[in-house]
Amino acid sequence: MATVATDITTCVAGWSDGGFEAFCDDIAGMFGVDMQCERRQAAVAPIRSLRERFKKLTAVHVVRAEGTLEGTFHLLLDQAGLFILGGVIVMLPEPRILEGIKQGSLRDAESLQDAAREAGNLLVGSWDRVFRQDCQGHKHFLKTDTFIGKPWDNSGLADLQTDEEALIVTYEMTIEPYPSFTCAAVFPKAVFAGRGDRETVFAAQPGPAAGSPESPGGGAKRPVVRESAPEAPCTAQEETRRLVEERSPSIPAPSIPASDSMFLDPAYVLAQPRSEPPEGAGRKPATDDRAAPLPAAAPAAGLTELLATPAAQIMQKEVVWADPEDTVQDVIARMQQHNIGYVLVGRDGKLEGLVSSSNILGAVSVYLRPMFAKWRRPEDDATLGVKVKWIMSRPVRTVRPEATVAMLIESMRRCGGRCLPVAATDGTVCGLVTVFDILLRLLAADKSFAWQGQPPQAPALLL
Fold it and tell me: Helix, strand, or coil here: 267?
């Protein structure tokens, strides 16, 4: 039984490596930074022993696990990690991040609370993705809380103030040009309860032979838990082209049923896709289609080029700004004037937040809509005077100008949101990319569509 438990903790430590590495890749791709992670130690020790490594302010993400692991575990970042990750997400100047690392107070850390929570969401999402791929029987991870402070104080986290033994895996992370910081994954004994007799859970994880370089006795830092060797690195553009070239020939061109045509704005979409040729009208077999090169006008050719297009080429260069002290009514007027669904909030070119039409509709009273006008009261009008700094979304996720459309789509899919500001390395906002910009260019890539104009994006007019 002890051997099985060792196998479980060894595999979990290996999956933790993959989770942190995936997180580093995600942050590097989203914010254009060089982020590395290396495991320092994996050992079973009392939870209270973490106090020696995390003496100052700490960000603790509490995670609920279901499946192979069952219960609550914790992901910790030290003070440097708290200020570096938070500063990168909200794009703070380098001197301010370095100041927070050296002498940041609890009040300074709490000002980055939203960014710390966002980092926690991204971290747990990366872990969940890796465990779904590598851990048979895993269901999901859910981040239930984020604690910022000193967990060892009386007002800290009781779960970490215990001598209970846990699997503690510590790492050293680096985001250039900042100093390295420490993070850890803490798995209490309870999350392994009842798993020791489930050898089949780990049957898919082949163990290395004794004495091999990968074996624990051979000086390896971690077990090999991936079934396939990693492929040679390639650029995002090369990967995009490879995927499209592999999959496009076998995907039939979509058609729009006549019953669905009512959802197409005739002033916006001017031509339907070309109809399929009748049966027996000289259409080549599927095998011939795969062997022959795609015609120049085929959607797949344009799609490949589009997915590799950098954000700088498709972004809206003219962006509309609002001051944090502006009211909801002011922003509605700007949206109507420019027919836009997103307004950046900030001063002197410094991005502080983002207001969408969804934020607006969620902030104003429903009785301001024409259909409910007869029930309108003075307190409903007062919602138009709310300052946008109270309703804006923050921190704002941004992308670099060189990020490809494929990266933008993946970021929107994984993290939600339908708008990504484009910012240079110094934090200067260059433009804005919305889901509408991407959809319009998808239509343009298909030569069987003709389109013109711009769809309405501003919120509906209020009385």
Answer: coil
Other CB atoms within 10 Å distance of the CB of residue 52: 7
**What single letter denotes the amino acid at residue 227?**
E
Q: 299-307 and 435-445 are packed helices; what angle lies between their axes, rounded to 10 degrees? A: 140
Rg, Å, the chain Cα set = 26
Cβ proximity of 5 and 198 under 8 Å: no
- For domain 311-445, the question of CATH label 3.10.580.10 is answered with yes
Mean pLDDT by 10 residues, the chain (463 residues): 56 93 88 91 91 91 92 94 90 88 90 87 90 88 91 75 89 94 94 56 36 38 38 47 48 40 33 43 44 46 84 93 94 89 91 91 83 81 90 90 92 86 91 90 72 60 49
pLDDT of residue 261: 34
pTM: 0.47
Burial of 276 (0-12, 13-18, 19+ CB in 10 A): exposed
Q: How many CA atoms lie within 13 A of 196 on its CB side?
A: 9
- All CATH 3.40.1550.10 domain ranges in the chain, comma separated: 2-218
Measured CA to CA, the distance from residue 337 to residue 328 in angstroms comes to 14
Supply φ then ψ for residue 353, to 5 degrees: -170, 180
175 CB-near residues (< 8 Å, 6+ apart) = 27, 33, 34, 35, 84, 85, 88
Helix then strand count (H, E) for the chain reads 14, 11
pLDDT at 196 (0 to 100): 46
What's the CATH fold of domain 2-218? Chemotaxis protein chec (3.40.1550)
For residue 56, how many C-alpha atoms fall within 13 Å in the half-sphere facing its CB?
18
Max Cα–Cα distance, the chain, nearest Å: 81
Stretch(es) of the chain classified as CATH 3.10.580.10: 311-445
pLDDT for the residue 461:
52
